[in-house]
Each structure stands twice: as C-alpha cells, then as structure tokens.
Design a protein that fits this description.
A 16-stranded antiparallel sheet has the order 16-17-18-19-20-21-22-23-24-25-26-28-29-31-32-35, with no helix packed on it. It is of the alpha+beta class. The N and C termini lie far apart (109 Å). The radius of gyration is 39 Å and the shape is globular.
C-alpha cells in the first residue's frame, strides 16, 4: 500500500505534465494560424488579432479593424485558417455638386481619408454627416450618394455626389402658452426668423440649434426683465417637415404672473459695512415692475463697492419673497462674509483665433484674487456681448488646496469679419453705392477695423476707421478715422466741396449708461463754385463766352448775370481751402432697451466743440439732442425728440459760411436740404443761396406702428409725425470790396450796403440778408422698412408754416425751399 506522501507526489507530477502540455499546445496553436487572401496586410498583423482568443472573437476583431470587408475564421484539426478579403485603399475623396457648402467644410466632417482603408460603413456614416451639415445650413432636403471608382493596385476613389436642393429654412416659429405677449412680439426678440419672400438674401432663417438656444435665453431674459419672475420655458421642439420643406419650431412657455417690487432692503452682516450706505447701489424701487437685470446690476454694484471698502471675500446674496395674492415681490440683498477662496488659475480654452488677453481684459478678477460668483457672472455676460464667440461657458474645479479654485472659460470663436456691398438712393445724395470691409476682432486682438469706399450721383468718398477698445490696458476705446468726401450741393446751393481729414478719439465709459468721448479733428474743406454753360453760378465774376442769360420776363440780358443762379458774394468769399482744427467732447447718456430699434428708454448727448487750435476757422460750437421712447401699446412706439445747436465766432472774428449750420429735413421734414434759414435775397437767385445760421432748435413727435395685415418679420412699419423748428442768426461778412476801391456798390461802407444787383455789369459786393426766426412746421406720414438691405425710410411731409420770402419786383426771393417727399436708405446686399 502506497503511502499518502507518494500519492501526493504522483498527482503533482501528473498536473505539471498536463500544464506543460497545455502551454506547448497553445504555442503550437499560435504558430499554426494560416492566413489566406491577404495581399497588402502582413500575415503577422492578421495573426495578432486571432491569437489567444476564440475563433469568433478573432473574426470580430479583424472586422472591427476596418481593414477587411469580409473575414472567415475556421478551425481544421490543429490549424486555424483565417480567410480575409481586404478593403481597398482610398486614393482620394472627391465631392461633386457642392456649391453652397465649401469643400473644406465637408472634408472636416467625413472620416474617409486618402490612404485609408475603404469601409462602406464609414462612408455611409459620412453621408449622414454631410446631410447634417446641409440641414444646419438650411438645405434639409439635400441628397447625398456615393460611388466607388476602381483604380489599379487595389485602390479606389470615393466620390460623394450631392444634390443640394432648395433652401429649407425655418418655416414657422410658434409659441404655446403665451398670453402677456403676442407670438409676433416674441419672434421679434429672436435673431432666428421665418422664411419669406426675402429668404434668397438672408441667412437668419437657417435653422441653427445653437442660435435657437440663444434666442430662447433672450426670450427668458425679456420676461424676467418685465416682471415675470416665475417664467420658464417648458419645452422647445424643432421638427423638420419634409412636406412643408422646412423646420417647425414650437416653444411652450409658462409665463406666470407679473410682479412689482413690494419692498427693498439691504442687510449687511459684515462688520464695518453699514447697509444703509449701500442703498445708492440699488437700481430698483418700491412700485417698480420687477426687473431681473436691475437685480443683476444691483448685485454687481454692491459687490464692487463692498470690495472697494476692503472686504473682497464678502458675498452679496439676493432674496425674493413672492406674494402671489398681491403680485409683489420683496427684494433683499444680504451682504455676508464668504469663504476665503482664492482663484488659483484661470484657464481659457477653445479660442483658436482670439488671443487670451482679449478674454482676460473683460474679467474683473485675476489669479490670486478672491473668488466671487457675481464677478464671474458679469464677465460671462461681457464676453457674450462682444460678438466674438459663438459660445461662452464658465465652470469651476477644485484647486491644489481647499481654499483654491480654478476657473475654466470655454469659448468657441466665430467669424467676425464682413464684406458688404451697399446700394441705395436718397433725395439728398441720389443713387449711391458702397463697398466696405470690416473686422471687429482684427487678428484676434479685439480691435475694430473698417475701410469703405462710396460713389454716387452727387457724392463719393473713402474712409478708414480703427478702434482699440482697451487703450493702454484701460477700458478706453481709442481710435482714429481718416476720410475724404466729395459732395455736389448745386441742386440746393451753388457750390461743391471736397473734404479731407482725420479724427482722433478716446471714449471712456463712466457707468453702463453714461460715457464721455474726447475728440480732435483736423480737416481741410475745398469749396468751389461751378461756372460752366450748364451751371453758370459764377459768371458775374468770370463771364462765359457765347452765353446769354434769360431773365424772368424771357429777355436775353447777358451780361446781367444775376438771373441764372449766381452764387452769393458771401459764398464766393469762401471759395478755396479752409483748414479746421477742432477739439471736442461728447457726453452721452442712454437707457435705451435696444440701440437699433428702441421701444423704451432715453438717449441724450451734449457735444461742445472748439475750433481754433491752429487752422483758419475760429469758433465755439455746441449741439445737443435728446430722445425719449415709450411703448404705448404692443408694437406701437411713440417718441419725442429735441435738438438744438449754437455756433459763436471767437476772437472777434466773423464766421465763414462753411462753419455755420445748414439744415433742412434733418430738422423739419417737408423742407429741402439747405431749405430753411438765412438767405441772400439780393442775389437774384430766388431758389438757393442759403447762407447758414448760427442757432437752431427743433422738436419732433412721432408714433410708429406695425402695418396690420402684413407679416411682422418683413420689418415694415408705418409712422405719423409732426416736426417744428427754426434756424437763424447769420454772423458772416456782409460787405465785400470786390474792386478794391473802398466803395461797396457805389457807396462808401459807412453809408451801408446798398445792393444794386440788377444794374448791368455791376458785380454784387454786399449781402442782403433775410434772417428771421420764423417757426417752420410740418406734419406727415412715413413707411419704415427694416429690410435685409438695411433700414429704408419713405417720408411724405406737408409744410404747415414757412418763410414766404420777400417780393423784389420780379418775384419772391429768400423763401424757404420745400420738399414733400423724402426717401433714404440702402445698405448691404
């Protein structure tokens, strides 16, 4: 009988032999993998996918590698036979039929690549990615197919054939659950628009999920700004309807009720900071409609003030107690000590074009500063407002210590340059065209650059502008402009001008509503009076050979030159170049809710200017304008405008005619350019010869309203208005010794200026000024079109009161020049 020790030894020896046999069998198995059908892929590469795994798992591994279109794995006796069919190698990827989407954009989304393996599954996935690109660009019905072109040596060309189809934008944007504001009003808040007759020249009707998300945030902020503290967007559904050929956007909202402010309080729990001293930072008051933007501004103001007093870790927390029965909300702002957390690092990610410092300068914090959520929220709003980024997102992560935090700023750059061709017509400038190139984020530095050239019937010019929004590292918008403009004013006056010059400017924002801009301008004005057979406006001084003038009685009277449009002697005295060196400041205050199309708010500016820092012009000038807008009913907006100005010569000088105000429809509609104000009634030119004035004042009442029955997104509105104003106070020279004999029209200057323009051959040597502060007024109606070509306006005005001039024996002279119809507009197309 064998002992137990011997049995255990025999069992161990047997196990060892079995394990050794298994290992030897596995190695032999690996060496017995037979590969068939491969020509370009090495057999060892194929074996690496099947060694040590089951035959089925090896087959799946080879298929997943993308190198083979078919794989079979069989076990025959002691061998594993792997039969493969290799995918062809892609020689190149070609796109056909793409006109609306660039080749580079398509190449960036497809996974099929030159020198890669051809895989039908990958190509089919590429087709879906290409279709998605077209859906996002407004062509949801685009069709994409592919074909394979066989080439020698087992390579192929992949050709994607694209039928782009017609544009399939947003067919409808509809809201559900809205009662306080109409569907049209809410659509107006969005940058996305519906398709209409103008879809062939606009892109805002292309469905873009990111833009829709931003638009919904605009809607949310609008409700919160107008008292709807419970507002929420329940859902936003985007559905592509092939039958209608476009997207249907359905937004479901829950408005809640509107709240007013019932009480406002500040509770300071920080020792050394009295809450009462912070009340000046509160932007809302009892009885006001609740406004979430005012709450944000209050948070920022209080946080900044407390930090300025030496408490950087203090946090301001808003509270609100709603009383739904009374519709009021009691606001509270609690100032308390916050955790002593420092910003360890600020990471800026995703900015492939915009430089880091452009982002950092919008932050009110830096590495090492106290972390404050209010300041990061304000920085996020600022960055979104720049227009440089498609997306901006702030996030935090723990730092290297419990009292450290890392702030991450993720952005996505978007195009900021534009090339535009502008065209339009106005009664002042005639047909005009403009080509401009602008970039608001020049070289990723956040600088604004624009160069533009224009040409038209009566004007042409070129200008260049550059603005650095953070001059010397401070929030100062510094820049310069260089310009040249030629204007033909002979339809309303008797001269042409060519102005060339430049301007330096520095803008300083004092608060969010108030700003100051310092300006220095220097420009040269070259004034000429045409004197040709068609425009004989200076033939008293320079007679035209072979020309005969006809007086009002139909008689040939040349060389009496006063009847054919002779320019005033005051205008002749200004012929030539005048250099103006001018320094000024603009004080501007604005609470407008929208700069382009305001509905509510106030805008006012005051512009004092002084000319005389060298140059020829010597004067002090001040102008002011104020506008107040109020939405009377939904989409019915009324506004009141007041404007005034005064220019005064300095150092005992008289004003040059080009330094005075020349006004018309910009002050009172219904009057022609240069159509009101002091005039030379002795020149014999009954229609023109405006002299300009030194003082003007005017006011406007206007009500704008939608044109019922027309789609709102066409941008058409109507308006009715009433204007009133006056221009007076000519302070230029009145007597001119043209002949140099000390005699003015046959009399000494002491005896006065006895004008005798109708004596044959006598050159007028004095100005017979009609200067009365007559109140001009008009009423009228307008059509306003916020078209894709830019804002266009049609005005028809009827003059109620005007200066009728004086009768000189042959007719009335010096009367105001009216112009009932006025059309202006035109922009990019």
């Amino acid at each position: 009988m064998m002992s137990m020790t011997g049995k255990r030894a025999r069992v161990s020896a047997t196990g060892a032999m079995i394990m050794a046999a298994a290992v030897a069998g596995g190695a032999a198995q690996a060496q017995q993998v037979v590969v068939q059908g491969n020509s370009r892929v090495d057999a060892e590469t194929v074996r690496s996918y099947v060694t040590g795994v089951s035959p089925e798992e090896g087959r799946r591994n080879l298929i997943a590698s993308g190198m083979f279109s078919d794989v079979r794995v069989a076990q025959s006796g002691g061998r594993i036979v792997v039969t493969v069919r290799e995918n062809n190698t892609i020689n190149r990827v070609v796109f056909e039929g793409n006109k609306k989407v660039e080749k580079g954009t398509l190449e960036s989304v497809v996974e099929a690549r030159s020198r890669g393996a051809f895989n039908p599954a990958v190509v089919n996935s590429d087709i879906e990615r290409i279709r998605e690109i077209y859906r996002r660009s407004g062509r949801g019905l685009a069709k994409v197919t592919y074909r394979v072109v066989d080439l020698p040596n087992g390579s192929v060309d992949i050709v994607y054939t694209i039928d782009e189809g017609d544009k399939t934008g947003i067919k409808r944007i509809q809201f559900v659950g809205n009662e306080a504001y109409s569907e049209g009003r809410l659509r107006d808040l969005m940058t996305s628009t519906e398709m209409n007759l103008l879809s062939f020249i606009k892109t805002s009707d292309v469905y873009d999920p990111d833009r829709i998300a931003n638009d919904l945030d605009l809607v949310r902020r609008y409700y919160l700004k107008n008292g709807y503290a419970d507002f929420r967007i329940v859902s936003a559904d985007a559905r592509f309807d092939e039958g209608q050929g476009g997207w249907i956007i359905t937004v479901t909202v829950d408005e809640g009720r509107q709240y007013r402010v019932g009480a406002v309080a500040i509770d300071s729990r920080v020792g050394g900071v009295d809450g009462g001293t912070l009340r000046g930072e509160i932007r809302t008051g009892v009885g006001d409609v609740y406004n979430a933007e005012d709450v944000e501004k209050t948070l920022t103001g209080v946080t900044t003030e407390v930090a300025r007093r030496g408490y950087p870790f203090a946090q301001v927390r808003p509270t609100g107690e709603r009383d739904r029965a009374t519709g009021t909300v009691s606001l509270g702002f609690i100032v308390e000590d916050g955790p002593r957390v420092y910003i360890e690092r600020v990471n800026i990610r995703g900015n492939t074009r915009t430089r880091d410092y452009v982002v950092r300068r919008e932050l009110d914090f830096a590495e090492g500063d106290a972390y404050n959520r209010v300041l990061t929220d304000r920085a996020e709003r600022r960055l979104n407002g720049l227009g440089f980024f498609k997306k901006v997102r702030f996030s935090n992560e723990p730092g290297s210590a419990p009292d450290r935090v890392i702030v991450n700023i993720d952005v996505e750059d978007q195009p900021t340059g534009s090339f535009s061709v502008a065209g339009g017509y106005s009664t002042a400038d005639g047909i005009i065209g403009e080509v401009s190139v602008s970039e608001s984020n020049f070289l990723g530095r956040g600088q604004y650059v624009r160069v533009a050239g224009s040409a038209g019937q009566y004007t042409r010019g070129i200008d260049f502008s550059f603005t650095e929004p953070y001059f010397l590292g401070y929030r100062l918008a510094a820049g310069f402009d260089v310009f040249n403009k030629y204007s033909d004013l002979t339809r309303y006056s008797r001269y042409v001008t060519d102005v060339i010059g430049g301007q330096l400017r520095v803008g300083l924002p004092i608060t969010e509503e108030f700003g100051v801009t310092l300006r220095y301008s220097i420009y040269n004005t070259d004034l000429k009076i045409p004197n040709t057979l068609k425009r004989p406006y200076n033939d008293c001084s320079f007679p035209l050979a072979g020309y005969t003038a006809i007086n009002p009685a139909g008689q040939a009277i040349y060389p009496n030159c006063a009847y054919d449009g002779e320019a005033s002697i005051a205008l002749k005295d200004s012929v030539g170049s005048t250099l103006t060196s001018l320094a000024g400041v603009t004080l501007a205050y604005s609470t407008l809710d929208n700069l382009a199309q305001p509905r509510n708010g106030f805008y006012g500016e005051l512009k004092p200017e002084f000319a005389g820092i060298g140059g020829d012009s010597k004067f002090f000038r001040v102008t002011t304008e104020a506008r107040y807008y109020k939405e009377i009913w939904e989409d019915v907006v009324g506004f009141v405008r007041f404007q005034a100005g005064h220019v005064q010569p300095t150092e005992g000088n008289t004003l040059r005619i080009t330094d005075q105000f020349f006004l018309g429809p910009s002050l009172v509609r219904g009057f022609a350019p240069n159509g009101i104000g002091p005039r030379d009634v002795g020149s014999g030119d009954a229609r023109s010869n405006a002299l300009g004035g030194t003082t003007y004042v005017g006011g406007t009442l206007e009500v704008q309203f939608p044109i019922w029955g027309l789609p709102r997104d066409l941008g058409l509105k109507g308006a009715v208005f009433a204007d009133a104003g006056t221009l007076f106070g000519y302070k230029g020279r009145r007597a001119f010794d043209v002949n140099g004999d000390g005699i003015i029209n046959g009399f000494s200057p002491v005896a006065g200026c006895n004008f005798n323009a109708f004596t044959v051959g006598v050159e007028p040597e004095c100005v017979n000024v009609r200067d009365k502060p007559t109140l001009r007024s008009s009423v009228g109606a307008s059509i306003l079109w916020n078209s894709p070509l830019g804002p266009i306006r049609f005005d028809y005005a009827y003059a109620l009161t005007k200066d009728e001039g004086v009768f000189n024996g042959l007719g009335r002279v010096g009367k105001d020049q009216t112009q009932a119809f006025r059309f202006s507009g035109g922009s990019r197309f």
